[in-house]
Each structure stands twice: as C-alpha cells, then as structure tokens.
C-alpha cells in the first residue's frame, strides 16, 4: 500500500497539474466517452493502459471473467452500467475484452471445484455456454493452454450475445447507432485480437488495416417495409 499511496501523492503533485485543463473541461462539460469497455478485473489488464486512453475517453466496467449477464428483471452492476452508458452517455461502441491466462476462464476450462466460492460459481454460470461449446466442439486432445485460450475467446462471443438481450443495446443496434466489438488481449505477446463478425474468427488489430468488428454500425430492422402513405 505504501507504494500505491506514493503514487497518489505523485498524481496530486505532478500528474494533475499537468492535466488540469483536461480535468477542468471534464468537470465543466461533463463526460462523453468514446466507448464502453467491459473487461476482466484481472490486475494485469488495464483498459486505459492498453488503449492509451486519457481521462474521459473510456467508460469502463470490470468484473471477473468480463461477463455480461443476460438482461433480467434483477438489477445488477453490469446491467446498470450498460444502460447508463447507452441511454445517458450516448456510447456508440461497446467492447467486451477477454484476455490470456484468465483465472475465471481457467476455472471453467479445468472444471475446477468452486464449492468453497459459491458466489464465484454462480457468477460463472453466465459463461457455461462457452464452456459447453469448448467441451463439445473442440478436439479433446488439446493442451491446457489451448483449452484456456479457446475458453476465453468463446466466452467473449457468448457475452456479446448476452449484450444483445439488453433492451437499450438491442434498440441501438436496430437503429444502427451501436456497434459491438469482441477483443482478446494476449498479455504474453502484447497483442490484441478482434472478433471479425463475418468470419467468426479473432484477427490481430493492425495499424493501417480494417478493424475487425463483431457487429458493425448498420440499421438492423427485421421488418424493412416501405409503408404506403395515407391518401390525402
């Protein structure tokens, strides 16, 4: 803690004075983040650091396993964060970001005994679809490392599907106002992969190349009908 407290003093004496204009503007004008990122609570994954974001750039929600529970009547922190980001802050891009060596995904890929952590076990039920995909759709003879990687990738896909059950997100997608992104951070290689919605595969993010997007901005109405106007 002493090391962390020392950094607080450094923020007050050095960082804030150099960025006081930015902070004053954020206070006077309010926040207008460029994206909502839902990432893992793992201390090795810091969204603002990965994206080199300034204060005000990202609206961040972190939890074990970068999970987005399907929309339900019960209130929850992730659900409230998503709703506020979309309906109040007008966020147009939502990123679900998984990562390598994720403890939550490791518990699922190894069928770890979680009886002593009932709350963790209940939370990870939101990733059971990914666990079933990995168990029934991938070869059995994969290495533990490959199984863990596959679990983390499939979990991102599942959480993006859950996002679409949230009314505010579903409505924004239908109007073409919201795009969904699925990312995977390889903390061993220092590389970020993005889900390509057309191929269903994760591709490296490369400067100067098109960004892989899970669900791009596009109007998506099931009944695309031109209604006849009433006669005058």
TrEMBL record:
Keyword match Lyase: yes
Family: Belongs to the beta-class carbonic anhydrase family.
Cofactor: Zn(2+)
Source organism: Sphingobium chlorophenolicum
Keywords assigned: Lyase, Metal-binding, Zinc
EC number: 4.2.1.1
InterPro entries associated with the record: Beta_CA_cladeB, Carbonic_anhydrase, Carbonic_anhydrase_CS, Carbonic_anhydrase_sf
Function description: Reversible hydration of carbon dioxide.
Protein name per the record: Carbonic anhydrase
């Amino acid at each position: 803690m002493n090391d962390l407290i020392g950094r607080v003093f450094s923020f007050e004496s050095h960082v804030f004075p150099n960025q006081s204009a930015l902070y004053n503007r954020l206070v006077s004008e309010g926040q207008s983040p460029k994206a909502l990122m839902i990432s893992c609570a793992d201390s090795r994954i810091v969204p603002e650091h990965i994206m080199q974001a300034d204060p005000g750039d990202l609206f961040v929600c972190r939890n074990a396993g970068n999970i987005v529970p399907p929309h339900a009547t019960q209130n929850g922190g992730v659900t409230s964060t998503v709703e506020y980001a979309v309906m109040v802050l007008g966020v147009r891009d939502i990123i679900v970001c998984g990562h390598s060596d994720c403890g939550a995904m490791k518990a699922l890929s190894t069928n770890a005994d979680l009886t002593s952590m009932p709350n963790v076990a209940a939370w990870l039920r939101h990733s059971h679809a990914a666990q079933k995909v990995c168990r029934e759709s991938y070869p059995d003879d994969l290495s533990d490392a490959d199984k863990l990687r596959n679990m983390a990738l499939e979990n991102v896909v599942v959480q993006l599907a859950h996002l679409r059950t949230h009314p505010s997100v579903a409505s924004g997608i239908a109007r073409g106002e919201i795009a969904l992104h699925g990312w995977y951070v390889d903390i061993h290689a220092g590389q970020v992969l993005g889900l390509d919605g057309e191929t269903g595969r994760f591709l490296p993010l490369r400067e100067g190349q098109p960004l892989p997007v899970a669900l791009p901005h596009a109007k998506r109405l099931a009944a695309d009908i031109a209604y006849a106007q009433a006669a005058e």
